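Q: Structure for this?
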Amino acid sequence: MAAEEASRSSPRSRREPKGRASRQDKYSVLLPTYNERENLPFIVWLLVKSFSESGFNYEIIIIDDGSPDGTRDIAEQLEKIYGSDRILLRPREKKLGLGTAYIHGMKHATGNYIIIMDADLSHHPKFIPEFIRKQKEGNFDIVSGTRYRGNGGVYGWDLKRKIIRLYRKEVLQKLIGKCISKGYVFQMEMIVRARQLNYTIGEVPISFVDRVYGESKLGGNEIVSFLKGLLTLFATT
Amino acid sequence: MTKLAQWLWGLALLGSAWAALTLGALGLELPLSCREVLWPLPAYLLVSAGCYALGTVGYRVATFHDCEDAARELQSQIQEARADLTRRGLRF
């Protein structure tokens, strides 16, 4: 592969063991935020810690939809602390939804892999190196976190759908183009479409800790809308 | 073809086969024991499917892993992060 040849020909190179991320791999983490002033510093700190310790190249793209609670101010401070090559602020004027937030974020992503996760600490960034390793191991197009297998689990019972996934950039672009659902349902639709297009999907068991700060943006009719979404997918895919 | 369309097709095929056999539309004279099983079969399958679904959900809920360690670890890392970020100049 081109990446391995490049490392072989450079003077101070080591032969990268098979399945390791090459020096050319960069991981763009997309963090759509709305009123995450309290969680944002911690999710960013944990992401930085996780990536620095594992040595993978990364950037964090914060897409704030005009949060009234000062999320943007916190994001700007974090950008000053960690540098604008690591923290990219790409805000929008108002709440425009998750799907378009990803599209917007991807336009500015310079990585060849995209990681999508929630900014509310429900998913711990410590799993990201495992996602990266899993992806390399099986050469997967998508790696998804699961609470249901292995040592996955939850703390604080929460029915809400929380997704953490690693995508090849071109795969995510293609899938977003094909999806028609809105809101959180479209994350499910992405996997359905991915299967139809024969993309390979790997899984990593993760633990999920219920929201630490702030109010969730999902209300009590989560179950109803989830079922409606499921039926819509059933009828349209 | 969408999943819904597939299911409707499948159900239509099986349903018409069942109807044809139970109503004797094909002129077949099935033995009574066969017909006694065939006639309630759809209802039986529906109830079984329902029980399986509920059973699976119940089992999964009961065996769902708790991860208290993860919660504790997160809390302690939040403390660590708070101190580190304050040192670096973040005004919370």
